[in-house]
């Protein structure tokens, strides 16, 4: 029945103030108001309809994406939306588009790596969308190994220009979003060559297409790289291929904040680390962590609401069957994901702060926290995207058969999300960067240099190598210090074990290769510690609202104890806890699940997602699942006719043939 809230009894069970939790989730009252207003704006505008996109062919889908992007831009201008509101609007449209890369990477690359004059020239054009840009770094032959890129930018002192060239097939740019069909410009990464000397990879602004007829400029071959995983998913994006044949650009289009080439062709390096050329990646990795909490929370919201609606078995004397959310196995799979969504939200907030802090320091020429910022953004991007991709798939399974229908929203969410484990740095490659940082930190412990930031705990080396958990009963695992110490000791001991093993090889490089699987595990342990500790820090803040803090304390314990249970092998083998303490943690976890249960629906309502944004029949706010599933099925284009196209051509002759054979 329309208008009935089938989940009302669940909502009435909540033991906390949902509206206050919405503020905590959004980050502030102001952020909540912006997000809520823009989400409703998008949901109520039929131009942003998205329920038909999985049935569209690639060309229609792409045109539909362009239409939405143009309409969104029109609304942004008409409503005079500010930067944050515009960003929200684009994200609620929920359809990857060239504009993501224009605003998310092209503009930040110019801001971060351009000189003041370059910013003054290019940013106003980009802000008004008079040019559209992409970020073209990856090539057919190299993505992870940025130093292996082959595109060249050779300075010609005769004409004061760079000649951009793709010397081999493998040097073609391959993957950049927005490049394939739309971008007029790109920040192109190429090896800088002056006077025959290779200075490594630098960024250049290159015009790719005419601003009059959109045709590629002379010397440029450009197109889309083809269909990707899924149906709609990331196929709304024109990931592109680009080949340069001696394309000339003026010297002042090299992004010259980090290093310069003079009129005479002299290469000058500013007094800044060359890694700042990688700054845009650090920025984007940080945003990807917050986006992980959004993607995971959407999947969890769908699976939680549906688990409360769905009933299987357990009817006695005609009573209703059991809601599947009441099965302990369902809780043990679902509630850690719910807790992870909150955990990633808070670590994302913290990472944003860290990024702003490092940016301020860089402006003041303090580069000391750059390695920490790189390690944290790389490690947390990796940890949160891997957990989210796995989590979305788990949510699909939690919804049984109906989770496999596109109308559940989960297949689309999964297909669009999984490349996050690869783009902005393959997750394993990034964890190996974290491991390098950890090994460096451990190796410096004896030198008197105290570790700082997220590795500060390693400064208590002696204690962490010796400590034994003092947990005696299950409820001891609710004490934040007990949990923190166990995670710190496990992470530290795993790093120290790797560092010791590295010394057994003839060279550190050989050792790093041989031990890379162990190093990745040590990096994961360190990153999990960061997430747990930032959740605990969040709880030390003043959090208003009836019962809100208590719910977050429960979720924090669920997150930490779930990890402890999942990785208990690490905790046991490093001697941080005993087998008895491991089973007490599991006992406590079971009890926490029972505490989450009455609040589960309200905890996902706190994400404040509109039905439009969720895009899921199973996750509907009102829980009215079955009639809507039935309605959706009839909307499928296959059901446009009773007898399908192809029946008379292929099936009927077959039937007739069999009839004839039967008569023989
Ligand atoms: C708002 C956002 C909206 C929309 C965008 C979001 C999503 C849209 C969807 C998709 C867009 C996707 C875009 C892309 O994928 S762009 C391409 C991204 N490519 C990568 O991420 C490549 C991964 N590889 C690397 O980052 C590096 O090359 C690698 C980290 C693997 C380093 O390899 P290598 O060992 O060769 O490093 P070196 O260059 O020799 O440097 C060593 C030295 O430098 C330190 N380092 C490395 N990276 C950084 C950095 N980013 N910042 C600071 N420092 C860095 C490294 O730790 C070493 O230090 P040390 O040991 O002290 O020498
Ligand atoms: C949807 C999507 C959008 C993208 N958008 C852009 C964009 O806008 N601009 C852009 O420039 N690029 C973009 N990319 C490219 C992306 O950044 C790269 O694909 C990514 O950095 C991974 O690099 P790769 O493809 O070279 O993977 P590879 O490095 O070839 O990885 C292959 C395998 O090798 C392993 N491996 C590689 N190196 C090591 C090592 N040292 N040790 C151990 N294992 C290793 C990896 O773990 C992986 O399992 C996009 C990619 C995708 C999928």
Describe this structure in words.
The chain is α+β, with helices and mostly antiparallel strands and 664 residues long. It has a domain at 133-271: Butyryl-CoA Dehydrogenase, subunit A, domain 2, CATH 2.40.110.10. Helices cover 53% and strands 9% of the residues. It is built from 23 helices and eleven strands. It has helices at residues 8-12, 18-26, 29-43, 58-78, 83-93, 98-113, 116-127, 279-309, 328-363, 370-398, 410-417, 427-443, 461-466, 480-502, 508-514, 516-539, 548-566, 568-573, 579-596, 600-605, 611-614, 625-635, 647-663, and strands at residues 133-136, 152-156, 161-165, 173-174, 185-194, 197-207, 220-224, 240-244, 247-250, 259-261, 267-269. The strands form three sheets. Strands 1, 2, 3, 5, 6 and 9 form a six-stranded mixed β-sheet that branches. The chain has a three-stranded antiparallel β-sheet with strand order 4-8-7, with no helix packed on it. Strand 2 and strand 3 form a beta hairpin. Helix 9 (328-363) packs across helix 19. The radius of gyration is 27 Å and the shape is globular. Flavin-adenine dinucleotide (FAD) binds at residues 101, 135-138, 142-144, 175-177, 234, 239, 419, 422-423, 425-426, 428-429, 432, 516.
